[in-house]
Amino acid sequence: MKAASISDYRELARRRLPRFLFEYIDGGSYAEVTLGRNVADLEAVALRQRVLRDISDIDLSTTLFGQKLAMPVALGPIGLAGLNARRGEVQAARAAEAAGVPFTLSTVSACPLAEVAGAVGTPPWFQLYMICDRGFMIDLMQQASAAGCPVLVFTVDMPVPGTRYRDYRSGLAGAPGLGGSLRRFGQALTHPRWAWDVGLRGRPHHLGNVAPVLAGKTGLNDFFAWMRGNFDPGIRWDDLDFVRQHWKGPIVLKGILDPEDAREAAARGVEGVIVSNHGGRQLDGVLSTARALPAIADAVEDKMTLLADGGIRSGLDVVRMLALGARGVLLGRAWAWALGGAGQAGVAHVLALLEAEMRVAMGLTGVTRIDQINENILAGRE
């Protein structure tokens, strides 16, 4: 199958990955209502088609947090992404660097920060959770600073993990001990290309950044037990002072859906927020990011840099998010599917597709620069 779109890479990933990994990427929480809304509401955003506007020179470049980007797109943080391809986060970071966009490394990545940063010339952004072990947080921030990571993406919408039924059905979660391991091993055997390339040649298999505190435990059960025991449900706004004390660069809060929270973030001096519902993987039934974004943009105006994720399946969707008020977007499933389906080449192709699709969308709405994309290109908002 030759992929022509992001949805094609979803199918390639479904075919290539063991079920427990594909369902982990693909699924949302509970009935996946918000997961569906993210896509449907963004698709429903209507644009104004304009003509005779001289679109011969279209420029997608922009600057975020002092970093010049080829287009207003970043690869967002995804846990366990390194299992989708051999040393997967390294492959994705290389594809992002070649495309001139940032890669964001998750705290719970398979590849450690040192490995990813050492594989590219442009250091990744680094994502961090509020963890009960504050000393471990300090250590991670020091590692990220030493590696030259320019931005800290601080995820605030996961004081407790959401309930994801697909992970239980696939055996990724709720399947402890030998029985669960054999179930996942059986799924891997039915996908021999993955088993050879990742399962055997992609070792070591452990959470690179978290490995020091797991004390040699490397199983998926150990990972989920660590998550349940270490994500801090007591997180408060005042905890931003602790993060700021140990991180001197830009801090971007990921997981903002409410205008009041956006205003509070601005008042606290945060450099940016990501309007996000965690890809529909936390509280099911909340607003899609496309629905939440305009009110948040109105609330913070130009007080901080506003980014968004959720439901982006094309360059047209990127333009829609920018028109709704974002200055840039983060990709999630789009790059994870591509990595799972075709490795670094797949991620590179998805980024090339987004660029080409953005150029078409911008040209047909009559804009040639990223800063010209605003609510004026939305139908019915003149």
Note down, in words, how this protein is organized.
This protein has 382 residues and is α/β, with parallel strands linked by helices. Helices cover 46% and strands 10% of the residues. It is built from 16 helices and ten strands. The chain has helices at 6-16, 19-26, 33-43, 88-99, 113-119, 134-146, 165-170, 177-189, 192-200, 211-214, 220-230, 239-246, 259-267, 289-300, 315-324, 333-365, and strands at residues 62-64, 67-69, 73-75, 104-105, 125-129, 152-155, 251-256, 272-275, 305-308, 328-331. The protein has an eight-stranded parallel β-sheet. Helix 13 (259-267) packs across helix 14. It is globular and about 65 Å long. The mean pLDDT is 93.
Envelope shape: globular
How are the strands ordered across the major sheet? Answer: 3-10-9-8-7-6-5-4
Q: How many runs of DSSP E, i.e. beta strands?
A: 10
CA radius of gyration: 20 Å
Unreliable segments of 5+ consecutive residues: none
Assembly state here?
single chain
H/I helix tally: 16
Distance between the first and last residues' Cα: 43 Å
Helix content: 40-55%
**Overall average pLDDT:** 93
Q: What share of residues are in beta strands? A: 5-15%
Class computed from helices, strands and strand pairing:
alpha/beta
Major sheet size, sense and barrel closure: 8 strands, parallel
Q: Strand-and-helix sequence, N→C? A: HHHEEEHEHEHEHHHHHHEHEHEHEH
